[in-house]
Structures are given as C-alpha cells and as structure tokens.
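I'll show a typical protein example:
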Amino acid sequence: INEMTGSLIGVRGEEFEKAFIETMIAHHQGAIDMAKLIPSRTDKPELNKLGEDIISAQSKEIEMMEGWMEDWF
C-alpha cells in the first residue's frame, strides 16, 4: 500500500469520498506537472503528444472533481 491509498484504508462513506477525491486531485496534478516537463526534455513527438493528452484529460478531470467537492462538501 502506498502513501496515497493508505489514507483510504478503514474509511467509508463521506469521509472516504472526500479523501478519495482529494487524493485523486493530487495524483492528477502530479501527472500534469510531470507532463509539463516533456517538451523541454525530449523531441520525441510521441512523448510530446502523450504529455499534451495527459494535461488536457487530467485538467478536465480535476475541474470535475473540484466541482464535486464544492457540490458535495
């Protein structure tokens, strides 16, 4: 069990939901931060495309989860 999933052990209901969303937002932000490094470190078009896709998809998911946090908690 890693640091992220460890915080979810033994919790249920609203406590789990909030912790899960907070953890996923942090996880997604980490992926975005890593993807932002790609253009300055490689010329491989496949990796650059992957980075762009990660930034786009995960940014949308963060926005969705932040909306849930506002609506539910």
About this structure: The chain is about 75% helix and 0% strand. The CA atoms of residues 24 and 62 lie 8 Å apart. The chain has a mean pLDDT of 96.
